[in-house]
Amino acid sequence: MATIDLTAAPPPRTAKVLDGVPRRLALTLPELRLVAQHAGDAPLPFDVSVADVPSPLNARLGTTSVSGEEAAYAAALASLHGAEDSLTRRGLLDGGVVEPGLLGAVGLLAVPELALEIDIATASSHVKAWHRESAGAVATLATVDGLVFELAWFGADQWAGELARVAVVPEEVTLHDSAVPAAFTMPYSLADSVGEALRSHRSDLVQVLVAQADGSVVDGDGDPIEDAAAGAAVAALHQEAQGRLRLLAARIEETGSTAVGVVSWTLLADGWHALLPHHDVAAPRLEVRRVTPQDLPATLAPVLAEVNA
After folding, report:
1. Contact yes or no for 258/252 (Cβ under 8 A)
2. How far apart are alpha carbons 208 and 221 in whole angstroms?
3. DSSP string for 98-128
4. Cα dist from 65 to 9, 61, 62, 75, whole Å
5. Is the Cβ–Cβ distance between 29 and 48 less than 8 Å?
6. What are phi and psi of 193, to 5 degrees?
7. CA dist 186 → 25, 69, 114, 200, 291 (Å)
8. Alpha carbon 146 to chain centroid distance?
9. In whole numbers, what is the pLDDT of the chain averaged over residues?
10. Are strands 271-279 and 97-98 parallel, antiparallel or unpaired?
């Protein structure tokens, strides 16, 4: 099987300036569904999180926050223009034939060799994206509201840039200095137990737990961090969290089986930090490393290597 190098720079272009540049289209959910129908009823890679119409059970029980969200979603969906008319006006549907590039992108979403599902949540936004690759071509789909979707397609040599684009910190998030070091490693059990102590409002236990870890919290060079600083760093990892990124990678085999890998980042006061679990001879450990959106392809590369193995 082919190996995709997401860490290498794209090769220099010798053809037209726009060759290889991703093509993007905004499509409403009805437009997307209509294109999928024209693509041989290609399945879309998502389930809409709320129903197209409010739940009858909720209607009988009275208005709730859930039924209110469903009603608002249904009203917004109903207010969208008819898919056939809007696609025709945009030149994407002509004589009952959908633009070939659009059909190909939606078709690729349905039958990939490699699939990525990306979920990014902050206090004020929730982005879901689906990336699908096959034979050196990539199609992506993304939405923040389940009503309007961005569909893009491009060559695999442009994939690294698209991944970095997805991981850009939302504009509404304010960044400032963090108490979490640029890189440090700790026992996974310590990260878990400190988190539980803080959730139980027992911050007084943090230093006790760190002391019990017996110098096993180390900096990026592998040197032990003094207990007080280690306790502050582990506590800040939980207290500063204001968002998260989770990426699920899956290799789709012809037999129907899949191989799966996961990338997890947390959004702290100063931006993204990768959460990198690994094992040593003693116990599972967690490395926390400051990263930027441009680091997502490099973080994903070893996961893809495992998935492709």
Report:
1. yes
2. 24
3. E-HHHHHHHHHHHS-SEEEEEEEEESS-EEE
4. 47, 12, 10, 15
5. yes
6. -70, -35
7. 44, 41, 32, 21, 18
8. 15
9. 87
10. unpaired
pTM, entire model: 0.85
Nearest to 141 by CA among 171, 170, 164, 110: 110
Read off the tokens for 297: 């392809």
Q: CA dihedral in degrees (100, 104, 107, 113; nearest 10)? A: 170
pLDDT digits (tens, 9 = 90+) for 189-214: 999 999 999 999 999 999 999 999 98
98: amino acid identity, one letter = V
Burial class (CB in 10 A: 0-12, 13-18, 19+), 255: exposed
Stated as kind and residue range, the H or E segment containing 36 is helix 29-38
Check: CB of residue 103 under 8 Å from CB of residue 116: no
- How many Å apart are CA 167 and CA 212, to the nearest integer? 36
* The total number of residues written for the chain in this structure: 309
Q: Of 7, 15, 52, whose CA–CA distance to 147 is shortest? A: 52
Q: Which residues pair with 277 in a beta bridge?
A: 286
Biggest CA pair distance of the chain: 73
Question: Is the separation of the CB atoms in 6 and 76 below 8 Å?
Answer: no
Q: How far apart are CA 247 and CA 264, in angstroms?
A: 6
Residues 6+ away with beta carbon under 8 Å from 247: 116, 117, 118, 119, 262, 263, 264, 296, 300
pLDDT in tens, 6-45: 655 544 443 443 455 789 999 999 999 999 999 999 999 9
CA distance 262 to 257: 17
C-alpha span between 263 and 245 (Å, rounded): 8
Residues 6+ apart with CB under 8 A from 119: 126, 127, 128, 129, 245, 246, 247
What's 158's DSSP letter? G
